[in-house]
Amino acid sequence: MSDACLILVDIQNDFMPGGALAVPKGDEIVPLVNRIAPRFHWVVAGQDWHPPGHTSFASVHPGEKPFETIRLSYGDQVLWPDHCVQGTEGAAFHGALSLAPAQLVVRKGYRREVDSYSVFVEADRKTPTGLAGWLREVGIRRLWFAGLATDFCVLWSTLDARAAGFEANVIEDACRAIDLNGSLDAAWREMSAAGVKRTHVDALQL
Ligand code: VGL
Ligand code: ZN
């Protein structure tokens, strides 16, 4: 049984050009992901899934604007435009994304009072999503990440993957970044310091 799993991060309409929290060129990764997913025995999809009035939305903090950072009870939080609201078209996966090979969908950020960039642990850094336990139970040890955004949800997910003892590889050309104030460079530095490996679609060796 293969111990390699592809983790698709937030390939959802609101992160696509024209979406509520557009990641530049986010749509370009969809054909690449469709091409590589069938090569994996295991595929998991993360889905950003916020209730209306979520604490990460600038609109619920009077006087604050999107892309500013504020201090919440669990730490610093970047404020975002309303995005990926549960059950809306913006929260749906990109229509051309083939999810047929995905066994498990992990929804995150679904409690109003805490955000979750990571597919493993919420932003309070305590509450697990349960994904690490599931991966271990089915015998997965090596993870490949593709999706959006490189410098937020992919970053936090890979760091938590390493902290939980998994091998972590980022498929660079199957990801796109938001790049807020140099966040993409910082993300690569942090990932590399944590032992996250950087690869690309044509170099995939499972
Ligand atoms: C994300 C900001 C807010 C992401 C999710 O998927 O990277 N970024 N929510
Ligand atoms: Zn979000």
What does this entry show, briefly?
The chain has four helices and eight strands; from the N terminus they run βαββββαβαβαβ. It is α/β, with parallel strands linked by helices and 206 residues long. The two termini are 12 Å apart.
How does the SSE layout of this entry go?
Elements: E1 4-9, H1 29-36, E2 42-48, E3 69-72, E4 75-78, E5 104-108, H2 131-138, E6 142-148, H3 150-163, E7 167-176, H4 183-193, E8 197-199
Parallel strand pairs: 1-2, 1-6, 2-5, 6-7, 7-8
Antiparallel strand pairs: 3-4
The structure holds pyrazine-2-carboxylic acid and zinc ion.
Pyrazine-2-carboxylic acid is lined by residues 10, 15, 48, 80, 117, 148-149, 152-153.
Task: Write up this protein.
This protein is an alpha/beta fold and 206 residues long. It has a single domain (4-51, 82-203), classed as Isochorismatase-like (Rossmann fold, 3-Layer(aba) Sandwich), CATH 3.40.50. The protein has helices at residues 29-36, 131-138, 150-163, 183-193, and strands at residues 4-9, 42-48, 69-72, 75-78, 104-108, 142-148, 167-176, 197-199. A 6-stranded parallel beta sheet has the order 5-2-1-6-7-8. Helix 3 packs parallel to helix 4 (183-193). The longest helix has 14 residues, at 150-163. It is globular, with a radius of gyration of 16 Å. The mean pLDDT is 97. Bound molecules: pyrazine-2-carboxylic acid and zinc ion (ZN). Pyrazine-2-carboxylic acid binds at residues 10, 15, 48, 80, 117, 148-149, 152-153.
